[in-house]
Amino acid sequence: MSTSGFVQEKEKREGWNRPPHIEPDGEGELLELAMGPHHPSTHGVFRMDVALDGERVIRLKPVFGYLHRNHEKLGETQSYLASMPFTDRLDYICPMTNNWAYALAVEKLTGQQVPERAEYLRVIVGELTRIVNHASAVGFLIQEMGASGTPLMYAFKEREKVLDLFEALTGARMMVNYMRFGGLRVDATPAWLDGARKVLAGLPKFVDEFENLLTGNEILMARTQGVGILRPDLAVNAGVTGPMLRASGVNYDLRKVDGYGIYNRFNFRVPLGDHGDIYDRFMIRLLEIRESFKILEQALKDIPAGPVMDPKAKLRGFRPKPGEAYGRIEAPKGELGFYLISDGSPNPYRYRVRPPSLINLTILEDMCLGANVADVVLIFGSVDIVLGEVDR
Amino acid sequence: MKTVEEIKAAIEAAVPGSGVEIIPNPSVCGQHSLLLAPASAVAVATFLRDDAELALDFLSNATGVDWLDREVSEKVKVTRTVTKPVDGVDQDVEETVEETVKRLVPGYLEAVYHLFSVAKGHGPVILRMRTANRSDQVSLPSLTPVWRGAEFQEREIFDLYGIVFTGHPDLRRLLMWDEFKDHPMRRDYVEPDDFEYEPTAHDEVLKRAEEHRAKLAGAQEVAPA
């Protein structure tokens, strides 16, 4: 591998929000290593070009685009509704929140109102998605630490139950295509709601089990505490959102800040970290699962009867008036936003996805510099990304 | 939170001669934006980030938009002197007529930034910058030194729209490969004819393959050996 264009000049690293310059200790040569694109720890096809001084990382450049399919261009060539199933394929672990963010942006553009029952169902499927995502993220993180299989299978056992619920509701486990502008595609039956309550009743036991297995584990603590620290001021400046940001101690959860949908009706708290290391990111996800239980319990208790679709909403021949709107939600990975410009035609003039996975990787190099190469895998795992969303 | 008019006044007080314009948004959500002049954009951005009341410390979204050249038809009232026979004698008379005038609005590339405040919990404040045209004058100042969150997103705009951000610390293509020539998100982008072979070529696939081969053969004949 050539060094040209890879090792940056020193002056480009000046400024408080740039990654620091690390001098090699001068003995021996630098080893340049391409981690990925086909590396089991990269969650897909992603490459990190790493320069190593012994075991120490002194440069790291992420390389993207292996899964690029120009999702945004596709969105401009088809109608508003036709993009809805494509949003499932962005972050394929959490299709429900992708649908929600897109529906919210279009509703902002047109001013459509969502019926009460649909808002409750959106919260229910959204929080179930958050549980699935955080459980898998933690499972994958432990897998990358070398605990092959067991914790991940514990997480996937619960994920399977939630995916069965999604299948009963929408007909698909993952590619759900569930939300519409001004409501939802289908209503949930009383039997489905009972099923959801049953799954929910079993989930706290799973988290207790998971915590017994992991949180006090000596190896986990030794590998993660004090590793990959992210400062709060840098995290905000670099646009980091979601559990990553809150693990650094910044209280910014869009469910509280924007209160989109009906989130301001629920009683829950926002867990925050102290240290901003991998352990905090791991713990924040487990704590957020517990907060999601609280929201789900309240939502399943209060859900009213009624329609799930605005009767005046138009799906065929849908042409929003000219204008633009930016809508965002707290997706499990961070702030997922959609920016739409309408020129009055059936297709959006501009269809932009603000991907939390990509933007959370901005500070990957800062966290990895000076760490051992084995920790790079862990730091990367603690960011929690999905390549379908990074490359779009 | 302050309205766009108040933010505009605050910017003009802090950065004199910055030439900020309000771009209204007709949509119901009322997210109006501020158009910055490229020369003073970094100073304005730094003010927005560091001002105690606005405290826009978080750049959420940065993206490009491509606006093609477009023809605008406007109805204009034109007054001119016409020679007309009045009472049998030719006289010069002033006459007002409505005429449709077609005007070409040149296209431009636009960078759009959505700012929020983590400290105060408000937003969005939307900034826009426009290039002079779509072909040769496509550079804009980079806001990455102010908000690191723009780093990858400006690289993406550079990659997909071709806006060159001056002052960006590491401006390379993000999603397409380095050897790629064009900017695929532009409205007038045409896919390259790189169609060569499909294992089961039939019907339109076969037709395209033959067209492609004919084109290659034609090119070889013309090109000197």
Account of the 3D structure:
The complex is a heterodimer of chains A (392) and B (225). Chain A has 392 residues and is of the alpha+beta class. Chain A has two domains: 10-63, no CATH class; 78-391, Cytochrome-c3 Hydrogenase, chain B (Orthogonal Bundle), CATH 1.10.645.10. Helix content of chain A is 45%, strand content 12%. Chain A contains 15 helices and eight strands. In chain A, strands 1-2-3 form a three-stranded antiparallel sheet. In chain A, a hairpin with a 2-residue loop joins strand 6 (323-331) and strand 7 (334-342). The longest helix of chain A has 29 residues, at 116-144. Chain A is globular. Chain B is of the alpha/beta class. Chain B folds into three domains: 4-67 and 109-166, NADH:ubiquinone oxidoreductase Nqo5 subunit (Beta Polymerase, domain 2), CATH 3.30.460; 71-104, no CATH class; 193-225. Chain B has helices at residues 4-14, 41-50, 150-161, 203-222, and strands at residues 21-23, 33-35, 58-67, 70-86, 89-105, 108-116, 125-130, 139-141, 164-166. In chain B, strands 1-2-7-6-3 form a five-stranded mixed sheet, with helices on one face. In chain B, helix 3 (150-161) links the parallel strand 8 (139-141) and strand 9. The chains are: A alpha+beta (392), B alpha/beta (225). Chain A binds chain B through residues 5, 8, 12, 15, 17-18, 64-65, 68, 70, 72-73, 108-111, 234, 236-241, 250, 252, 257, 320-326, 328, 335, 337, 339, 341-342, 349-350, 352, 354, 358-359, 361-363, 391-392, and chain B through 25-29, 31, 57-61, 63, 65, 112, 114, 118, 121, 124, 126, 145, 147-153, 160, 169-170, 172-177, 184-185.
